[in-house]
Amino acid sequence: MKRDRARRGPFGGPLAQLIRAARPPRLLLSAAAASSVLAVASTLAFPMLTKQVVDQIPGGGVQAQNIALLALALTGAALASALTAYLLSRVGYGVVANLRRLLVRKVVGLPIAAFDRSSSGDWVSRVLNDCQSISDLVTREAINLLTSALLLAGSITVLFLLDLRLTLMLLGSLGAAFLLVIPLGMLLEGLARGTQDRTARLGGILTHVFAEIRLVKAFTAEAREHGRSDEEIEGIRRIGLRQARINVWIEPLMTLALMAAVIAILVYGATRVSRGDITIGTLTAFVLYILNVATPVVQLTHFTAEFHKAKGASTRIAALLQEPAEDDGQGSDASQRERGDLVFRDVSFAYPGGEEMPVLRGIDLVFRPGTTTALVGASGNGKTTILSLIERFYRPSGGAIEYDGEPIERFSLGSWRGRIGYVAQGAPVMPGSVRDNITYGLSGQYSDAMVWAAAERAGAAGFIERMPEGLDTALIEQGNNLSGGQRQRIAIARMFLRNPDILILDEATSALDSETEHQVKLALAELMKGRTNIVVAHSLTTVMQADCIYFLEGGRISGMGNHEELNRTHPYYARLVARYFQKLPEPVAVEAPAEWVGSAGG
């Protein structure tokens, strides 16, 4: 255990793993380090060159060569520093891009259950803010650490060579300040982690609010959302103030230590100059080297704060990267299978954390090719869960789901979901053009004629033609420049191009007017031919046409059969049918009071 902790050290663990995963280009980093070393060398040379110039002044002549060397040192330090900054910028942008690509691929590849546990704002904060913290540490702060260490070591070495007593006085002052600063720096680590956590929660709240702004305004919930965001904003403010109070002590302590050292060295140095122990040039060089010591000390203090910040970010990113990805099965290609029965065998399911309240309880279902199967039941009885299990968004808690006699978990996710077409009730729209949405997720090239044909069959061509740019018209976030019916017809057009084996229709015609619904149903009737069709609908006119109907109650199948069979044998289903067609018993006639007679105007 001790050996493991020693191996990880302060720079090991998740942070080191992420830095390796970001693949910073070694050539550019080496060039930046070399440039930084050149800048340090020029900076170290400057005080010594100044010493020579100052010592030459009493003699009455300053050599032009020394002035030229002094100017060369200043110019070299400036140019080398500029080159270092440019190289680090290139490295930094590359590192943050690599980290973000890695995280985006990881997040998109997570199972649906992971998104049930965390808000989208948390994922966004990890990809944007945390990656930037690590990038800053790897590039700018890492080189600053190298530069500071070299400059500090070089300056102290030269100071020892110049004068041992003055150097010990300087190091004593700085050492006393560091003993006070180190505990404060440790406090900053916890505060930095708290700031990042609060920022992530605020991002989650704002993401939800902005995505559902119509809901917020429709229910006048602005005050509620103000309160939720204000709580996180206030938390960030309080943590920031605590950080500021600590930083207020750190910088003055270091400044006071340096100023005390400078004053003491000037007084003591002037005394030694007057005695002839050292020259005025040596004292001048010593004071200049103090500045070379002060800059690295400040940079090291800043590095410590950034290191703790990146360390906290790396812990969260490492936890995200350890999330198990979706199970891609054994790689079997589902597209090579013949169309077969999709069968649920004694399937049970409970959502994570709700094992004591299973949604499905040992159900058996059969979906056959060339037939339409409807799932009916009150909300919350498991219809949507069944669809999610078919899509492999979740895995059953018990039992098995088979396709053509083979467990669906053995198929690769891409090939399995490629056989499924899903028209959801909300018909989500992605930002992009109409064409992008109709061809969304489809491989291959589709000509305008093919896209228009699919739109025509879905009843979408008419309104697309009236759009400003036709198929190239941009659709905004959530398709807010489309009606609900238009969004659904675009989703149905996508199904014509996808040509799936298993077609899932989740309230696919619920948002259409009567005329459009009739047209889309005709198109769907053509699309459904020869496929395994699974329908969830509250409209009994849709359900009645199904070859088989499963009625779900309390997570179990309480009845199955076609419309006529269920209407005869299932009381609940019969009541739904009676209400739908208004076949409830006629109300008992009641004689009107005498005073009402003749008051209706004849």
Summary keywords:
Rossmann fold; disordered N terminus; alpha/beta; ABC transporter transmembrane region fold; 10% strand; 602 residues; 6-stranded mixed sheet
Report the CATH topology name of the largest domain: ABC transporter transmembrane region fold
Strands, total number: 12
Shape: elongated
What is the helix content?
A: 55-70%
Radius of gyration: 37 Å
Largest sheet report? 6 strands, mixed
Could you tell me how far the N terminus lies from the C terminus, measured between alpha carbons in angstroms? Answer: 99 Å
CATH superfamily of the largest domain: ABC transporter type 1, transmembrane domain
> Can you identify the CATH class of the largest domain?
Mainly Alpha
Report low-confidence residues grouped into runs of 5 or more: 1-11, 583-602
Which strand order does the major sheet show?
6-9-10-3-11-12
Question: How many domain regions?
Answer: 3
Tally the helices: what do you get? 20
Beta-strand fraction estimate: 5-15%
Give me the CATH architecture of the largest domain, please: Up-down Bundle
Q: Helix/strand/pairing class, anyone?
A: alpha/beta
Give the rounded overall mean pLDDT.
Answer: 79
How does this structure look, described?
- There is one protein chain.
- The protein is α/β, with parallel strands linked by helices and 602 residues long.
- It folds into 3 domains: 11-321, ABC transporter type 1, transmembrane domain (ABC transporter transmembrane region fold); 340-419 and 500-506 and 527-602, 3-Layer(aba) Sandwich (Rossmann fold), CATH 3.40.50; 426-499, 3-Layer(aba) Sandwich (Rossmann fold), CATH 3.40.50.
- It contains 20 helices and 12 strands.
- The strands form 3 sheets. A 6-stranded mixed β-sheet has the order 6-9-10-3-11-12, with helices on both faces. It has a 4-stranded antiparallel β-sheet with strand order 2-1-4-5, covered by helices on one side. Strands 7-8 form a two-stranded antiparallel sheet.
- Helix 17 links the parallel strand 9 and strand 10 (532-536).
- The longest helix is centred in the middle third of the chain and has 54 residues, at 222-275.
- It is elongated.
- InterPro entries: AAA+_ATPase, ABC1_TM_dom, ABC1_TM_sf, ABC_transporter-like_ATP-bd, ABC_transporter-like_CS, P-loop_NTPase, Type_1_exporter.
- Keywords: ATP-binding, Membrane, Nucleotide-binding, Transmembrane, Transmembrane helix.
- It is a multi-pass membrane protein.
- This is ABC transporter/permease/ATP-binding protein.
